[in-house]
Amino acid sequence: MSEAIGEMILPGTYIEVRSEGLIGVGGISTGNIGVVGTASRGPVDKVVILGSYAEALDTFGSYDKWPAPTDTTTIPLTLTRILEQIFRAGGSTVYAVRVADATPAAATWDVKDSVGAIILTLSAKSPGSWANDITASMDVDALTLKYRNVKEEFPLTASTTAAELAAAINAGSNLVGAAVAVGHEGDKPASLQGGQVGGGDGATRSGAKLASGLTLLEKEDVNIVIAGDFDGAGAKLLSHLERTENDGRERIGVVGASSDDITTIQGEVSSSPRMVLVAPGILADDAARTEANKQVHLPPAYAAALVAGRMSTLAPHISLTNKDVAADGLSTQYTRAQQKQLLTHHVLVLQKNLGIRVLKGITTDTGAFQQISVRRIVDYAKNGVRLGSNPYIGRLNNPRVRAALKSTLDGFLSSMVLDEMLIAYTLDVSATRAQEIAGVAVVTMTLQPTFSIDFVKVIITLS
After folding, report:
1. What values do phi and psi take at 346, rounded to 5?
2. ∠ CA 126-77-342 to the nearest 5 degrees?
3. Dihedral pair phi/psi, residue 14, rounded to 5°
4. Structural domains for the chain
């Protein structure tokens, strides 16, 4: 029998269960990272969830060699290199989107019969230059595919047909897919030719491509977004943050300055309570380099990835101020005067001090949300109140149900006090008769978030 009584016609006992008092607030994610970039492998314009750097390499392939400082024309691939910094800093859940300037082509191989007619075509599982490293060969016994430490073999006999070989490849290969030429399903494979790639990886710095990738992240459960090394990244990210906030999916954006130059950085600051601007760049080992010295200078976009990864490991109320980040070094070490100048312009500065540390965990905001931790606390509260209130949508708008709603929210806010995210709060749930008729319940809260210690003032009295 239903727990909500609809009608009573037949004689009997009808029981209605009112469960509002059992509604609580479930788990809230705080460290999911969204990132957009370019890669040599993997699906284009699709969101992929990653949990480790090994998964990132398997999905998007290795990054290419970082160009020399004198090379101003080569555009490096960014996604895997950014993911390397995120996971190095402690990130655990990343929503990654690969974008490309043009549609990258997939490597192809043609399987022919004994008279040279193409009966089967193999295509790499995803487009890009990664498939150039696939070695394909065929003899009378098997078709063999090799990619780094992966080897796939598909046995052949005198009776194997193109359709049978294609079915075996499509069922068992992680490297390629197979398509049979129309009318050649029953023909026998005899030789293999190909290994052609019709285009590049689509490496780009286009702000339009960044915007399209960020659009794909708008509906995902993301808390921190990295813009990456794109032209106009700050403006595109700011638009994204405004749209997601209006949609009830609040998040913080982390972007690197376009260079280490202080004057340039100051011109890129735009006041926003959700934006974090990071400088300077970092030193990191380049796995694609064959030289003895593998260390390269990476621009601030990659420092932003480190900061975002480190932020994701911290509870919302824990400040980034004075926290270490896993960088090998800094591309520029600012003087104390330069650090003061950047902090005055609300730039998150990395400094060398017993390792590489965040000087002060701040947003670009000039108002109430200068501390990143305060912004995250309020976002956490908003998310929790939303999760706690949504189950009440459609229920009765009367004092009993509103009291249950208040109890649910009170329990959530009390837990924030116990977790030291809040010092105190006030809460009221009400509705006038007109609001009851309109289906409106009003939740009024006053929150007192905790703040971090940025300065310690010491007074010494001598006697």
Report:
1. 65, 45
2. 145
3. -115, 125
4. 33-101+203-361 (3.40.50.11780), 108-196 (2.60.40)
Query: How confident is the model over 238-290, as pLDDT tens digits?
Result: 999 999 999 999 999 999 999 999 999 998 888 899 999 999 999 999 998 88
> Taking Cα atoms as reference points, which of 170, 164, 209 lies closest to residue 189?
164
* DSSP designation for 132: G
- For residue 60, the SS3 value is helix
Between CA 175 and CA 162 the distance in angstroms is 18
Q: CB-based contacts of 156: which residues, under 8 Å, 6+ apart?
A: 138, 139, 140, 141, 142, 143, 165, 189
Pairing of strands 348-352, 47-50: unpaired
Which residues touch 53 (CB under 8 Å, ≥6 apart)? Answer: 83, 84, 87, 88
Those residues with Cβ within 8 angstroms of residue 199's Cβ, 6 or more apart along the chain or in another chain = 102, 103, 104, 105, 127
- How many Cα atoms are found within 13 Å in the side-chain-facing hemisphere of 111? 32
Q: Which residues pair with 295 in a beta bridge?
A: 285
List 424's β-bridge partners, or say none: 448
87 with 203: CB under 8 angstroms? Answer: no
pLDDT at 198: 58
Q: For residue 450, name the pLDDT band (cuts at 50, 70, 90).
A: very high
What's the chain's Rg over C-alpha atoms?
28
235 vs 250: CA distance, rounded Å:
17
Place of tokens 């329990």: 411
State which H helix or E strand residue 319 sits in.
Answer: none
Residue type at 361?
G
C-alpha 250/C-alpha 188 separation (Å) is 58
What would the mean pLDDT of 126-141 be, rounded to a whole number?
87
**DSSP letter assigned to residue 329:** E
Neighbours of 22 (CB within 10 A): 10
Quick one: average pLDDT of 178-206?
A: 84
Q: Are 312 and 90 contacting, i.e. CB atoms less than 8 angstroms apart?
A: yes
Dihedral sign from CA coordinates of 134, 137, 142, 148? negative
Residues 44, 100: Cα–Cα separation, whole Å: 7
Q: What is the DSSP letter of 412?
A: H
Peptide bond into 280 cis (omega under 30): yes
The pairing of beta strand 142-147 with beta strand 282-285: unpaired
The DSSP-derived string for 247-277 is TT---EEEEE-SSS-HHHHHHH----TTEEE
